[in-house]
Glycosyltransferase family 1 protein
Amino acid sequence: MTPMSAPIAIDISRLGVREYTGTERYTYELLAALAKLDRFRAYTLYCNGLPERLPTLGPNFSLRNVPCPRLWTHAGLGPAVARDRPALLFVPAHVVPLWHPPSVVTIHDLGYLAFPEAHTAQRRRELDLTTRWSLRAARQVIAISQATKDDLVRHYAVAPERIRVVYHGVDQALRPPHDPQCLAELRRRYALDAPYLLYVGTIQPRKNLERLIEAFACALPHLEQPPLLVLAGRAGWLSSAIFQRAQALGISKHVRFLGYVPDDDLPALLGGALAFVFPSLYEGFGMPVLEAMACGTPVLTANGSALREVADTAALLVDPTNTDALAAGMLRLTSDANLRSALRERGLARATMFTWERCARATLDVLLASFA
């Protein structure tokens, strides 16, 4: 086969997990948008076990299951693409295999450098080595924000012209909820018996949740009708101290941990919140911020990493290392209806600027340019 007639290979191994978070959602939504956009070029999707769910794909997409219990990227994917000889390999959320055709890789963040204490020493070494290898092996690199691109240039001396910034999109299903019965049913199922401030994401140290809980404790005495602080997401690295913090501060009755929330519940959970709080110390993008905005929920977020870039002027930005600033921000949002209304309108407008179709078009441009 000539290079342009050979298929484009895509590593979709991230879709093999049951519960999607950032990189899995990126892979799924980008694949769905790419399938709608390009109905002519051939694509082969490589996986380690068949995913439970896939987006609607056209006849130009084929699935290649390569079961491999260990070291799938190098022992499974690498030999498979060596045999199949695709024109190009796209790795949206993993590592480029040792044997590879011309490749494009997406780098999501360098959190292990920005927040090393959230990873074990061994895990930091693994992430550093695999990132270095992927940056060396790939013809082109996609960064999901300018902040991530800047980090790659700063820490790994990648030539800026090899990196293309391609923003995420927002799920079209995320819209302000208009069904009171749906909202009431969700509140009943999750026992949300008061207005609530909401965080959605992995429960882990770099999300700054201990400080968020401490700031909430500082704000509580100043609130006549205190809301709940609701944290939704699966437990991540070193999360035990976060779960214990509310009890240590004596505010357990005001703090709820929901665990992982299915996608179908997110629009109502986000849209029913008084405000969304996301004070993460470091993000490569910050998709939950845009998802909350798309649901019409006012947002408080950190003024650093990619969060300032993504939120722009559509959120209340605070210093995430300052507990008093976080407490003051939560007080403003709970007490100032005009501020919430203004942020709601700005957020809705901001979210429309990020679409998966736009992400797919820009990604396809990078892939096709890498044939040369």
